[in-house]
Design brief:
The protein has about 230 residues and is of the alpha/beta class. Helix content is about 30%, strand content about 25%. It contains 7 helices and 9 strands. It has a 7-stranded mixed β-sheet. The longest helix has 13 residues. It binds S-adenosyl-L-homocysteine. S-adenosyl-L-homocysteine binds next to strand 2, helix 5 and strand 4.
């Protein structure tokens, strides 16, 4: 049975309390995140609900954590960095639609849900998506739309997207994602193999040419084709 979460579930206690969450926000600020919209949204998003209870006491450490099936919930700093880079490269006028590849726990999508109009998110591992979908429903995030599929082909039905965020690292960015990108939007993606990945932002310049901008060195789980 689906149970909506109470204020207390969401606000948390002890290691998951608002005060613990506030300390994480201060740490992100110290590390250079200065987009107030992103910081406030992460302050409001209960990361402890996006992992197993056994792990929840570590939810507000600035670290990636396992979510099963060999996957991880991204490090908060990386979520903040990617979200800020995405927003900065997107138009400011609605409608703002964002496509995320790699739903995982659903945390990144939940952060985006408070910042843009619609979030479309694709995950290739069925049980992870089922859990994430349940969390979106419990938190009443009605603007997050999920799909169980390989994200290589994007999600053409709702294109173009003003923002595309990939949270697993492909060796090369799938062509379909460029095709589904709004000419005024941006695509943020970690690119590279196990040896090392670069977080990159793609945008079109005034002449319609795609520009690639290096943002950071990162370490993501690999982008994998096919559906599980
Ligand atoms: N954004 C997630 C991070 C999840 S880790 C969060 O906030 O928790 C990356 C996820 O990408 C994994 O769950 C993995 O299964 C998924 N993934 C990898 N390749 C994929 C592909 N081709 N299509 C869709 N999802 C993919």
């Amino acid at each position: 049975m689906l149970r909506y979460l109470t204020e207390k579930d969401i606000s948390g206690v002890g290691m998951t309390s608002q005060r613990t969450r506030d300390r994480l926000i201060e740490r992100l600020r110290d590390k250079g995140i200065d987009d107030e919209r992103v910081l406030q949204q992460m302050r409001r998003t209960p990361r402890h609900l996006f992992m197993d209870e056994a792990m929840a006491s570590r939810a507000y450490e600035d670290t990636a954590l396992p979510i099963g099936h060999g996957q991880t919930i991204s490090q908060p700093f990386v979520v903040a960095r990617m979200t800020a880079a995405l927003l900065e490269g997107m138009p400011t006028e609605p409608p703002l639609r964002v496509l995320e590849i790699g739903t995982g726990s659903g945390y990144q999508a939940a952060v985006l849900a408070g910042l843009v109009d619609e979030v479309y998110t694709i995950e290739r591992i069925g049980p992870l998506l089922t859990r994430a979908r349940e969390r979106f429903r419990q938190l009443r995030l009605r603007n997050v739309h999920c799909r169980h599929d390989d994200g290589t082909a994007g999600w053409p039905a709702h294109a173009p997207y003003q923002g595309i965020l990939v949270t697993a690292a492909p060796e090369r960015v799938p062509q379909a994602l460029f095709e589904q990108l709004d000419p005024a939007g941006c695509l943020v993606v970690p690119v590279g193999g196990a040896g090392g990945q670069e977080l990159v932002r793609y945008r079109y310049d005034g002449d319609g040419r795609l520009q690639r901008q290096f943002l950071d060195l990162v370490s993501f789980v690999p982008f994998v084709g096919g559906r599980d």
